[in-house]
Amino acid sequence: MSVDPLVVSVRPPYDDRAGTGAFFAFGADGRRTSRIESSGEHGKIVADKPSKVAVDGERLYAVSEFRTSSTSSRAVAVDLATGRLVWQTNPGRGKAVALAVHDGKVTVLQQDRGSFTERLYVLDGATGEERDDRTFSVNVDQEDGWLGGFFDRDGLLIVSRYDTAGPGRPFVVYERW
Question: What is the pLDDT of residue 66?
Fold first, then answer.
């Protein structure tokens, strides 16, 4: 998941379900500092897609699924030193499908329920407080299973998808505001 700090994700072989496995964080001396279970008070971290987990500094940020009357998702931050939950977002927003971390900000790509429009919201990486929220009338696909990656580079937010063999778009680029 990350080289600096070193964080690895492990899962049982041939198991691609959300919430199985764990993350191990290591210090500069090569010793393990924490073990973060994929399932816990934060819900079930979706570790099978790189666009759903990011490491920045001293935290692991992830899209986490939880169950109410249906399966929903949210962004969470977990401390790498202790393995404890630092914050989680409001779960009533829609389906979080990816996140990217840059300069202390966590940008979450969300699919609004029912409309399948994309929404980007920016959270403070330290507190989880919302800094900005934008909705786009781009109907690129109706399932996050097609999501290949979500990247924050040089002021651009780049969404890549597998070819959906239909009206989907393989790349959508948003300019950071």
Answer: 79
